[in-house]
Amino acid sequence: MKAGTKLGILALALAAACVALWVYYVRQVAIPEDRTAIVVVLLSALALGIAAFVKGTNWFGGVAAALAIVIGGFLPFTIAISTQEVAASVIKVGDTIPRFSAPDGRGETFESSSLHGHLVLIKFFRAHW
After folding, report:
1. Is residue 65 part of a domain?
2. Which of 121, 61, 48, 55 is nearest to 91 (CA)?
3. Which of 5, 45, 108, 129 meets the CB 3.0–4.6 Å disulfide criterion with 57?
4. How far apart are CA 107 and CA 101, in angstroms?
5. β-strands 101-103, 109-111: how paired?
6. 108 inside domain
7. Quick one: DSSP state of residue 96?
8. Domain total in the chain
9. Is 8 inside a domain boundary?
């Protein structure tokens, strides 16, 4: 097996493990504020994918390296262009919902005051795509 093939497989394994961790964070709605380690690992996978082509690889290693390059570059790019920040006044479990109005799915105005006296679950989704 060529050295580049081994690097390509390693790069893909590293990228896949990092993406699996990222998906876990997203599903738990617990994306870390400091994403430096995730970005470094993904950029390392990207670098290993490029190194695999430089060293020379067979078709299987080339596919793995190409996937690692795409994965290793995509998420850091989306993180870099994202400006999502946590607000200073975060709503926590058990807090009273703030008063607001907004259009609903039918274009009618929804008033948060209409929920008064009811138990309500509000689920927020936060990701970088």
Report:
1. yes
2. 121
3. 5
4. 12
5. antiparallel
6. no
7. P
8. 1
9. yes
- The residue written with tokens 């738990």 in the block is 28
Computed on alpha carbons and rounded to an integer, the radius of gyration of the chain in Å comes to 21
101: which 2 tokens? Answer: 């109005």
- pLDDT tens-digit profile of 52-105? 988 888 888 889 999 999 999 887 888 777 766 666 777 777 777 788 888 888
Note the pTM of the prediction, 2 decimals. Answer: 0.62
- CA 90: distance to chain centroid? 21
Rounded to an integer, what distance in angstroms lies between the CA atom of residue 70 and that of residue 54? 16
The burial class, CB within 10 Å (0-12 / 13-18 / 19+), for 16 is middle
Q: What is the 3 state secondary structure string of 102-123?
A: EECCCCCEEEHHHHCCCCCCCC
